[in-house]
From TrEMBL:
This is Histone deacetylase complex subunit SAP18. It comes from Balaenoptera physalus. Keywords: Repressor, Transcription, Transcription regulation. GO terms for cellular component: nucleus. Gene3D superfamilies: ASAP complex, SAP18 subunit. Found in a mRNA splicing-dependent exon junction complex (EJC). Component of the heterotrimeric ASAP (apoptosis- and splicing-associated protein) and PSAP complexes consisting of RNPS1, SAP18 and either ACIN1 or PNN, respectively; the ASAP and PSAP complexes probably are formed mutually exclusive. For the ASAP complex, the association of SAP18 seems to require a preformed RNPS1:ACIN1 complex. Forms a complex with SIN3A and HDAC1. Interacts with SUFU. One of its GO terms (molecular function) is transcription corepressor activity.
Length: 129
């Protein structure tokens, strides 16, 4: 299997990038380029990000992963949250792979990093009631 170039964009405020930051050939400035495989797990990707950002190594740092992909119905991009990991803790999404989440070569990965002293913002999947 060939590796792929994964373009990863990170924030350290616990929120994903806005979709308009990916418009008309532009991308956010916080890009990491990682050579990896479709069977890479979220935990493996977390480790690679922590190599580049030492502050993300703190126990309790939360990583929320989303795939950013081209919207085929209208111009622009869409985002799909796929899971999360935490430094120093095992989680249910750790072994999730890019392939299992329908990642396509050419998509971007957006990772919202939340420091351990701040609670992550509620996920879009949570109900307010």
């Amino acid at each position: 299997t060939c590796p792929l170039l994964l373009r990863v964009f990170t924030t350290n405020n616990g929120r994903h990038h806005r979709m308009d930051e990916f418009s008309r050939g532009n991308v956010p400035s916080s890009e990491l380029q990682i050579y990896t495989w479709m069977d890479a797990t979220l935990k493996e990707l977390t480790s690679l990000v922590k190599e580049v950002y030492p502050e993300a190594r703190k126990k309790g740092t939360h990583f929320n992963f989303a795939i950013v992909f081209t919207d085929l119905k209208r111009p622009g991009y869409r985002v799909k949250e796929i899971g999360s990991t935490m430094s120093g803790r095992k989680g249910t999404d750790d072994s999730m792979t890019l392939q299992s989440q329908k990642f396509q070569i050419g998509d971007y990965l957006d990772i919202a990093i939340t420091p351990p002293n701040r609670a992550p913002p509620p996920s879009g999947r949570m109900r307010p009631y």
